[in-house]
Specification:
CATH superfamily: Cytochrome P450
Keywords: Heme, Iron, Metal-binding, Monooxygenase, Oxidoreductase
Number of helices: 16
Family: Belongs to the cytochrome P450 family.
InterPro entries: Cyt_P450 (IPR001128), Cyt_P450_CS (IPR017972), Cyt_P450_E_grp-I (IPR002401), Cyt_P450_sf (IPR036396), Cytochrome_P450_Monoox (IPR050196)
Pfam family, one: p450
GO molecular function: heme binding; iron ion binding; monooxygenase activity; oxidoreductase activity, acting on paired donors, with incorporation or reduction of molecular oxygen
Strand order of the largest sheet: 2-3-9-6-4
Length: about 475
Amino acid sequence: MTDTSTATAASVPVAPHALPLLGHALPLLRDPLAFIMSLSGYREMVRVRLGPSSAVMVCDPALTRQVFLNDRIFDKGGPIYDRIREVIGDGLSTCAYPLHRRQRRLCQPSFHPTRLSGYGTVFARAAAVKADSWHDGDILDVTQEMMTLTTRATMETMFSGALAEETMRRSLADTAVIVSAFFRRMMTPALLRSVPTAQKRRYDRARDRLASTIAQIITERRADPTDHADLLSTLVSAVDEESEGGQQQLSDSELADEALTFFLGGMETTAITLAWALHLLATHPEVQQRLRAEADTARDGAELSPAHLPALGLASRVVTETLRLYPPAWMMTRTLRQDAELGGVRLKRGSTLVLSPYLLHRRADLYPEPDRFDPDRWLEGQPDRASYIPFGAGARKCIGDQFALTEAILALTAIVSRWELSPVGAQPFRPKVETSLSSRGLTLRLTERPTGRGTDSGPREAVARSAPAQPSTQPGAPGCPVQHKE
């Protein structure tokens, strides 16, 4: 990219209300979304200060796309990816530019359409089993239930049942600890991150235990060359034909990084998207009714499967609109690998750029009535590539985007086919900003459809817990994410 500009980063305006030493760290920690939206008046770029350093937030969709499409210059980096690398190493979603092309080639076969169909079948069945476990009048801890669903389905598609039930539960709890700590660690200065607090020790234990679990599975799979029709089998057997000799494969450490990448990505982001979609459907019953009618027509009594996807247009639009309003990756960062120009401004090597799908997705000039849930805004065609970026764009776009969309569409259809969802209480529910836009603490009430399964007789009671402790299969046990109606 030729640098012909005359302006420097110092000419980019600084966001207001920066404090000495701290910069904008306090508003970012206190209410990150409000702070991000306060910058919507800047149409191109604005500088944000974090302690003694600063980053340039890109507010323009065309400039954002330019950054995404030039990953050779604008590489993945910055505080978000530094913290994520602590857990998943140099997996496909976090590795630097020099490693990315090779890893993408080796991972791509795992997401071939022939594989995706099998993964979708697993997910549809898991969603049906989860829906069958609920009862009329239950109050769901929605995020916990969706985390359980996506964890089980992701484990099955990745490892085809290699984990024992107790290990599965422990991995779910460990993952929740890791994910909940990401954002605070991202915003905490390096010196304080090393302080051995109880929270840090808990985080370290969870991270090490999850990594050990994945490493054990890889060791067992290396010893068994059978194709288990799962994602790990494809990764183990993948060969980079463009490497020297054309036979290079992923090492054990690379396999562990990729397995952790796809596990955390496939589980957490899909669970959050599903939770927000269910929340939006519960607060928009007319859309929920239409979606239920679509599901009944598409299935016509048959078991839900990926074969039904072409007939699930409204479900697809609901997921698309959910990702617009609540993109799991609400903020992304990039680091310049060399001096470059962006929007007529010279930026130096090592500079950090901040990109926010949440900000772009709620711009009124791009989306009329941007805060309104309206799946039918997508009837006229596909989302605009420049302004709709829930999965990123360019060579670093999420490799599993189609897998994630398939999962969400099938799960929503399975759930709405069985249950009517309604809010608990009248207070609006706000995201809890972590690395993702968390729906932690969201509850919804279930009402069984008249044509559904008959309700069990007799009273039941349980305590709903929002904490991601090990879920129990017994109603009323601690950690049970469902509160049964008496």
